[in-house]
Write a structure and sequence with these properties.
- The structure holds 2 protein chains of 2 kinds.
- Chain A is an alpha/beta fold.
- The radius of gyration of chain A is 27 Å and the shape is globular.
- In chain A, helix 8 runs parallel beside helix 14.
- Chain A has a 7-stranded mixed sheet with strand order 9-8-10-11-13-12-19, sandwiched between helices.
- Chain A has 21 helices and 22 strands.
- By secondary structure, chain B is an alpha/beta fold.
- Chain B has a single domain, classed as Rossmann fold (3-Layer(aba) Sandwich), CATH 3.40.50.970.
- Helix content of chain B is 29%, strand content 15%.
- Chain B has 9 helices and 8 strands.
- In chain B, strands 2-1-3-4-6-5-8-7 form an 8-stranded mixed sheet, sandwiched between helices.
- The chains are: A alpha/beta, B alpha/beta.
- Strand 15 of chain A pairs parallel with strand 2 of chain B, so a sheet runs across the interface.
Chain lengths: 630, 311
């Protein structure tokens, strides 16, 4: 098992450069021809505390973090207790080594910084090493880094040691370093890198274990992007030139990526006083004729409920992103959950409607964000893209050609002045902005400043001309028309024939998932089928309007299904039952809400329990919830 | 032809062009000060020669929010307290539009207080009219942020324990570059101030005293007022922040004690509006953003390459 994939975990303290080091190493692995997938785990604090990043690299396609890992690089937390030089922050335990041993696979490799960490602090360390056949390299990475430059370069030393141990060509890393820095800093880093590499080669037997870097080859050039990049670039390529927001983890990723790009593409970014303003600004910019977007995470999105409803009632196109983290309230700021689903589907007063997309990987983030803008501007309705902290910070390689980088300036069902002149006006010459009768529910719009198109946009119920009205007939006509949009959108989306079913087509047991868990579920399907089971999976990435036909087809084709989601109350299963009005007796749930996403083995375990009709309890970090009935 | 040909017309505009032909009569109570705002706004727009279709009037909720039902332009009747974020984004999206926001004292200084502070400090080039009648009108007479201490209402039966907001001082402190107070009882001054406010290149805050004959008969808006610019007793430099501040304190103390002073309190010339500041810093394009979606020759930065950084 250890030869066909490398799962490299770099652990240390927040602020010690774990993130940037891992991204560079992931890129180096990608450039060498491998498929890579990163998983980031970090605490809600700025410096210190235990953080790690895993990079899974394989010749095969990788779609999840996998189970456990086989290479640990423990750097030590420079901001926690330093055993050699006394306390920084009191008596805090140094976790980069102690916290990371449980999931290290048998036969795995440990490299630890003996300049900062002491294995004497770890309970039964030697026994565990022997028991698990781990191969330990104690290297004074800090000392080595200090010798050539600065202590912070111990990351580089760790990467150099890694390369020597797994047989990875240093050229890829050196090239990346040369891209990122220059002058003395580059020279010092290269010295550290090479020194660590040579030290390991000279002083250790690197063939004593089976962990090595796999070999692969890409047919075309790849790029390393996260889900947040997918969303940001989707927006940009669809002509979004206005973003407004307020920082909140994990939404901040999309916000900062776009903010940095906007000046280069002639757009505007606004960091504003709160999330109500953020969404209201996007509504204002959209009303005035610009493709605009805002977004937040759970707590900030709660504030956006008002402008969201306003956008629907005034039929102002709007795209909002919701990047979920664990709640309730501020919950766990840096941990993923899928428990804002109902919040996103139902927030806002009255019978309000919105389109909700839920992408599952960076490519889908890109595609669905583009689609979100197309639908929002064609149907004049708020469209949400909901994803989570996991997908937000996960990097995967994607073919560079996937991104077309062709901006789309179309404003959908917006009229030009010539078209306004031809459009319906009432007997007093007023443009009928909210006409009752269009077939697909969409009454074309005008933009302030256009001749002949003036109207009043109001969050109150209004007549076709935009006048506030409580007339019963008008009310019914307007409500029916707005509702009709959802049906038209569903019909539109159904035209895209997408392949969402994964695995053995004739299988009798189904797994159902949404969003960021999809890749993990699909990996579990492969393993279950390898284990002799017959399983298939359905990933749903359109939450509203719900793809009822597709879901029914799938559920009709299996005798029972396990719904996998990161939530305590099985919100997604509830959504399926509500939308289909049935299947309650055949849908059981696998739930996880400890702050970490599923690993494939947990899903395999639960599916086997269900298929074999056993009464076993699943692993303590997950919960199986039996079918609830209709 | 521009995509927005209503903008920048240099023509005579009659104020009746802003009167919607088919609108119902205003539902404001007889004697309401809001009629005065409507009249002054129409007059000011006509004086400036604004085509109704180049004007975007954003309102909040309340009696003041009904303004754009009786004022015929592009309008956005938003939600309670949120007219400013909608309005300022519209101005950013199309800097050629004449953008005016309006709200009541509850809407503007209460629920929308945060937006007021931030829009003022950013100095967006727009005009903000706050209908100040010291009471919640449409929800039937509750105490508002500008109601005087001791004001009795169904929600403050023992009398308001809170000191009122000082709108002018708040506007100035927050960073508004034009601060004035006018009153519905003086339509000529009101029109003049609105003209100035709209011509001013930056955030203009106009605290507009409007009497509420139904819920707040005690409000001081009924007493005779003094125009501070016309009176020798109140000679001060409107471009001096400290002097303006002092005058505001005097006025705001006096408002609840018998004398109503109106006029321009602070006019800061030469400071960049937010749009100018953003353009100066390279974070906003010169061309109005909304134009480019209709402009076939617009450069869409097709060569912009975000991919390189990920290779």
């Amino acid at each position: 098992m250890t030869n066909d994939e490398l799962i490299w975990r770099i652990a240390g303290g927040s602020g010690d450069g774990i993130d940037s080091t891992s991204q560079n190493f992931a890129k180096a692995l990608m450039r060498s021809g491998l498929n890579v997938f990163t998983h980031r785990h970090y605490p809600s604090r700025i410096r210190g505390g235990h953080t790690y990043v895993e990079i899974r690299a394989s010749e095969e396609n990788v779609r999840s973090r996998g189970d456990g890992y086989n290479f640990l690089l423990s750097l030590g937390d420079s901001f926690a207790r330093n055993p050699k030089e006394g306390a920084y922050y009191g008596e805090e335990e140094v976790k980069p080594l102690s916290e990371n041993l449980d999931e290290l696979r048998e036969g795995g490799v440990i490299v630890y910084d003996s300049g900062l960490l002491d294995t004497d602090d770890i309970e039964n360390f030697d026994e565990r090493v022997e028991e698990n056949d781990w191969h330990v390299y104690d290297l004074d990475l800090r000392g080595l880094a200090k010798e050539h430059g600065r202590e912070i370069m111990r990351n580089t030393a760790g990467v150099g040691a890694t390369a020597a141990i797994i047989g990875f060509d240093l050229d890829y890393i050196e090239e990346l370093m040369a891209d990122a820095m220059g002058g003395d800093i580059l020279d010092a880093n290269l010295d550290v890198l090479r020194d660590a590499y040579e030290t390991v080669q000279e002083e250790y037997d690197v063939d004593a274990h089976d962990v090595s870097v796999p070999e692969g080859e890409h047919e075309e050039e790849q790029v390393l992007v996260s889900g947040s990049h997918g969303i940001a670039y989707g927006a940009l390529d669809e002509g979004c030139r206005f973003i407004s927001g307020y920082p909140m983890t994990p939404w901040t990723d999309v916000f900062t990526i776009l903010t940095q790009l906007m000046p280069d593409v002639g757009g505007i970014s606004e960091q504003v006083e709160d999330e109500i303003a953020a969404a209201a600004l996007a509504v204002g910019a959209s009303h005035a004729g610009v493709k605009a977007m805002s977004g937040s995470s759970g707590g900030g999105f709660a504030l956006m409920s008002e402008p969201l409803g306003l956008a629907e009632m005034t039929e102002t196109p709007l795209v909002l992103v919701e990047s979920m983290r664990a709640g309730p309230s501020t919950g766990m700021p840096t941990k993923p959950e899928q428990a804002d689903l109902e919040h996103v589907l139902y927030t806002s007063q009255g019978d309000s409607h919105r389109v909700v997309f839920a992408p599952s990987d960076p490519e889908e983030c890109y595609e669905q964000t583009r689609k979100a803008f197309q639908i929002a501007w064609e149907y004049q309705i708020p469209v949400m893209v909901i994803y989570d902290q996991k997908l937000s910070g996960e990097y995967r390689n994607v073919p560079a050609s996937f991104f077309d980088q062709e901006p789309n300036p179309s404003l959908g069902s917006t009229l030009t002045e010539d078209e306004i002149a031809e459009a319906a006006h009432d007997e007093f010459g007023k443009f009928e902005r909210f006409r009752h009768d269009p077939e697909n529910g969409v009454s074309p719009r005008s933009i302030p400043g256009q001749k002949g198109g003036h109207f009043l946009a109001t969050g109150n119920e209004h007549t076709p001309e935009g006048h506030i009205s409580e007339d019963p007939d008008n009310r019914v006509n307007q409500m029916n028309r707005r509702l009709r949009k959802m049906r038209s959108i569903r019909a539109d989306l159904d035209e895209d024939e997408r392949q969402d079913v994964y695995g053995d087509e004739s299988a009798d047991f189904g797994l159902v998932s949404w969003g960021s868990q999809t890749g993990t579920v699909e990996e579990a399907v492969d393993r279950l089928n390898e284990n002799g089971y017959s399983v298939k999976a359905l990933s749903i990435s359109e939450m509203a309007p719900f793809p009822e036909r597709k879901v029914r087809d799938f559920l009709d084709s299996v005798s029972e299904a396990l719904v996998v989601e990161m939530s305590t109350t099985a919100q997604f299963r509830g959504h399926i039952q509500k939308e289909t009005g049935s299947y309650g007796e055949m849908l059981s749930s696998l739930l996880k809400y400890n702050g970490n996403p599923f690993e494939p083995a947990e899903i395999v375990e639960a599916a086997e329990i269900e298929i074999d009709d056993r009464l076993d309890e699943p692993s303590s970090q997950t919960r199986l919830e039996p079918a609830a009935g209709d | 032809m521009s995509a927005f040909s209503a903008i920048g017309n240099d023509r005579e505009v009659d104020q009746n062009e802003f009167t919607p032909g088919i609108e119902p009569q205003p539902t404001w109570c007889p004697g309401c000060g809001d009629y005065g705002v409507l009249k002054a706004l129409k007059g000011a727009m006509a004086e400036l020669g604004k085509d109704p279709e180049e004007v975007l009037l954003c309102t909040g909720i309340g009696c003041s929010g009904k303004l754009n039902s009786y004022f015929d332009s592009y309008g956005f009747h938003t939600i309670h307290g949120r007219s400013l974020p909608v309005a300022r984004a519209a101005k950013l999206a199309n800097s050629d539009l004449e953008v005016v926001a309006a709200g009541g004292d509850g809407d503007g200084y209460g629920i929308g207080g945060n937006h007021f502070m931030h829009t003022a400090r950013e100095n967006h080039d727009m005009t903000y009219i706050v209908f100040n009648n010291e009471v919640f009108g449409l929800t039937k007479g509750q105490t508002s942020p500008t109601s005087p201490q001791g004001h009795k209402s169904k929600t403050q039966p023992e009398g308001n324990a809170k000191a009122p907001i000082r709108p002018l001082s708040l506007g100035l402190t927050s960073g508004a570059s034009y601060v004035a107070r006018t009153a519905a009882v003086n339509p000529n001054q009101a029109k003049e101030i609105l003209v100035e406010a709209m011509e001013h290149d930056g955030f203009s805050h106009v605290d507009f005293l409007t009497q509420c004959p139904t819920w707040n008969k005690d409000a001081k808006q009924y007493v005779p007022y003094v125009d501070i610019q016309d009176s020798d007793d109140y000679d001060f430099d409107v471009s001096d922040r400290r002097e303006a501040q002092e005058m505001m304190h005097e006025t705001e103390d006096a408002l609840y004690e018998g004398t109503v002073l109106t006029g321009r309190y602070y006019v800061e010339e030469g400071r960049r509006s937010y749009q100018q500041e953003k353009r100066h810093r390279g974070s906003m394009p010169e061309q109005p953003l909304a134009e480019r979606y209709f402009d076939d020759s617009a450069e869409w930065e097709r060569s912009f390459d975000y991919i390189d950084r990920h290779k």
